[in-house]
């Protein structure tokens, strides 16, 4: 396994973390992470990053108002997080093929009959 040096990992992590004082809108209620299209007219909380956690700092009456309050921070956050590189898909795996040829028995004709057994050599059955 190729481990990256701790300094490089810390630099990447620090680049993805929010800046101190950055704000974001958050839905109020039990469902913390939901899309902005879910109930856009419901009140939203405004949270601020204090360097360690998101702290509530205010309430907006709907998503539009909350987005106006945090708009510049959201754009800065989007520019800071790199997008994944989209390139060719990985090669498809080979399909599974059985190692022995399998033939389904013919079900249209009945199985062959066995010839009758010859009588035992002594004349009678004991």
Structure description:
The chain has a three-stranded antiparallel beta sheet with strand order 1-2-3. 5% of the residues are buried. The chain has 126 residues and is of the alpha+beta class. The protein has helices at 6-16, 63-80, and strands spanning 23-27, 44-49, 54-60. The protein contains two helices and three strands. A hairpin with a 4-residue loop joins strand 2 (44-49) and strand 3 (54-60). The protein starts with 5 loop residues before the first helix and ends in a 46-residue tail after the last helix.
Précis, in short:
By secondary structure, this protein is α+β, with helices and mostly antiparallel strands.
Widest sheet, order of strands:
1-2-3
The description of the largest β-sheet is:
3 strands, antiparallel
Output the number of helix runs. 2
Helix and strand pattern:
HEEEH
Instruction: Output the structural class.
Output: alpha+beta
Mean pLDDT: 78
Question: First CA to last CA: what distance?
Answer: 76 Å
Strand composition percent: 5-15%
Q: In oligomeric terms, what are we looking at?
A: single chain
Number of strands: 3
Radius of gyration: 36 Å
Helix content: 10-25%
**Low-confidence residue ranges:** none
Shape type = elongated
Which helices and strands occur, and which strands form pairs?
Blueprint: H1 6-16, E1 23-27, E2 44-49, E3 54-60, H2 63-80
Antiparallel strand pairs: 1-2, 2-3
